[in-house]
Write a structure and sequence with these properties.
By secondary structure, the chain is an alpha+beta fold. The chain has a domain at about 35-115 and about 155-214: L,D-transpeptidase catalytic domain-like (Beta Barrel). It has helices at about 10-30, 120-130, 135-145, 170-180, 195-205; strands spanning about 50-55, 60-65, 70-75, 95-105, 110-115, 160-165, 190, 210-214. It has an eight-stranded mixed beta sheet with strand order 3-2-1-8-4-5-6-7, covered by helices on one side. Helix 2 (about 120-130) runs antiparallel to helix 3.
Length: about 210
């Protein structure tokens, strides 16, 4: 009995920690993929510029150069993944043509690559639907067409980006257990394992085009 230095609660916590570690390791192996097909189908662009193509229905993020896929990742999306993002709080991931407008390591989700949502088409559609004013529409269009981040405080929402898992250990543990990858859990962002977003972070720059397909 002298070696029993942990309480029953301590043993339980230790067991839970081991289970979490094993589950996380298995999930990483199962969901970190590189597809054998190297062609970004549907894209005949000959430019050597790096771009990101996200296909929501497949939960895949491709890093492309021209029409060649150089890396592919499984990703998690918004909790309500069907359809394009329309308003703040709808927990949907946008659809359309965007670009990386912010790149920061100072994020509670390890790394953050901000996406230029709302874009031009989002602003035009929202204005026609009466969601935003003409001035807000024009402000979004002006900023996006000049390569700036759009305003992220409008009714359309903002701060949509590609990021990792929470830096807080408790939050990261429970998100990983309750929403094991590739289950969707974000408020509309695109989430990757931390080591994956580090790879992407080192590959892309502000201005990198981002296509998000249904």
């Amino acid at each position: 009995m002298g070696n029993r230095v942990l309480s029953d609660g301590g043993y339980l916590q230790q067991a839970q920690s081991k289970i979490f570690t094993v589950c996380l390791a298995v999930a990483i192996v199962m969901t970190s993929i590189v597809l054998p097909d190297r062609v970004c189908r549907g894209y005949t662009q000959t430019s050597s510029q790096i771009r990101i193509v996200i296909v929501k229905s497949r939960q895949v993020l491709d890093v492309c150069q021209g029409n060649t896929r150089i890396k592919s990742y499984r990703v998690c999306l918004g909790l309500d993944p069907y359809g394009p993002k329309r308003i703040t709080g709808d927990r949907r991931t946008p659809e359309g043509e965007y670009f990386i407008c912010l790149k920061t390591a100072a994020s509670k989700f390890h790394r953050f690559l901000g996406i230029s949502y709302p874009g031009v088409e989002d602003a035009r559609s929202a204005f026609e639907s009466g969601i935003i004013s003409r001035d807000t529409r024009d402000d979004i269009i002006r900023r996006v067409t000049t390569g700036q981040a759009p305003p992220w405080h409008t009714k359309l929402g903002g701060w949509v980006g590609i990021h990792g898992y929470p830096t807080d250990e408790y939050q990261r543990r429970w998100i990983s257990l309750l929403y094991p990858k590739p289950h969707n859990w974000t408020d509309g962002c695109i989430a990757m394992w931390n080591f994956e977003v580090e790879e992407l972070f080192s590959t892309v720059e502000v201005g990198t085009p981002v296509t998000i397909e249904p």
